[in-house]
Amino acid sequence: MATIEIHDLKFNYPDGHPALLGVSLTVKPGERVALVGPNGAGKSTLMLHLNGILQGQGQLRVCGWSLDNGHLGQVRAAVGLVFQDPDDQLFSPTVYEDVAFGPLHMGLPVAEVRQRVDRALRAVGMSEYAGRVSHHLSVGEKKRIAIATVLSMDAQLLVLDEPTAGLDPRARRGIINLLRELPQTVLASTHDLLFVRELFPRMVIMDKGRIVADGATAALLADQALLEAHGLELPR
After folding, report:
1. Rounded to an integer, what distance in angstroms lies between the CA atom of residue 212 and that of residue 122?
2. Beta strand 157-161 with 18-27: parallel, antiparallel or unpaired?
3. Which residues touch 22 (CB under 8 Å, ≥6 apart)?
4. Residue closest to 195 by CA, chosen among 27, 35, 3, 79
5. 3-state secondary structure string, 190-226?
6. Burial letters for 97-128: b for 16+ Cβ neighbours within 10 Å, e otherwise?
7. Torsion sign (Cα): 64, 43, 178, 139
């Protein structure tokens, strides 16, 4: 069973602007897939469909669930969406409370919530930060905590929006090393093609609401004409 199954997904914003023009994509369990393309290509719009924040027309199944109103709870527990700006999802007084928020609202017993928080913070190397104030942390530390908030929900799929944006080299390396160790299926939208080359065997290029290329990262990054045609450039 695929982790993501999308067929002919279309979506228009309320002003009538078409954002997705028949997108089809399959991602298998354990795959690491980079989603790249210029601004306005539809990458973020596509990702927001994966846990039902946006709902367009077409066929969409995530972690075995169709995204209708009867299954949104299961889908949102299975899909860990991590925004580009971690301040968009860190809002509690302490790191512990941020990571515990999801499991608590699932109605889990306090003892299990504590176990999940401890496990998630340990997975991102932030166990000693449980009592810290999230908004006093560095951007890199906040991104790790944001990832922990979805790990505490036992997410099967991590959907990351620009995970290396705004990070200094040390923090960027830390995020790369963290993602390399996590076992979940990962779909990441990014402009950082060096990050893509290092961590993602498969790359999907979007432009103007469509998937224009999907294949092995090494092959697509070697196609200079393809990259240039879609506003992409691999740093030398």
Report:
1. 39
2. unpaired
3. 8, 9, 10, 58, 210
4. 35
5. CCCHHHHHHHCCEEEEEECCEEEEEEEHHHHHCCHHH
6. bbbbbbbeeeebeeeebeebbeebbebbebee
7. negative
Which helix (H) or strand (E) segment holds residue 26: the answer is strand 18-27
Q: What are 44's two structure tokens?
A: 């973020």
Reduced to 3 states (helix: H, G, I; strand: E, B; else coil), residue 134 is helix
Distance CA 191, CA 189 (A): 7
In the block, which residue shows the tokens 């596509």?
46
Nearest by Cα to 234 from 211, 212, 205:
205
Q: Show pLDDT as tens, one digit a residue, over the chain (236 residues).
A: 899 999 999 999 988 889 999 999 999 999 999 999 999 999 999 999 998 899 999 999 999 998 876 788 888 889 999 998 998 889 999 999 999 999 998 889 999 999 999 999 999 999 999 999 988 899 999 999 999 999 999 899 999 999 998 899 989 999 999 899 999 999 999 999 999 999 999 999 999 999 999 999 999 999 999 999 999 988 87
Of the candidates 18, 53, 50, the one whose C-alpha atom is nearest the C-alpha of residue 35 is 50
Task: Enumerate the β-bridge partners of residue 59.
Answer: 7
| Separation of first and last alpha carbons in the chain | 39
Q: Describe the strand order of the beta sheet including 57-62 as a list of residue ranges.
A: 18-27, 4-12, 57-62, 65-66
Partners of 197 in the β-ladder: none
Which residues share a beta bridge with 209? none
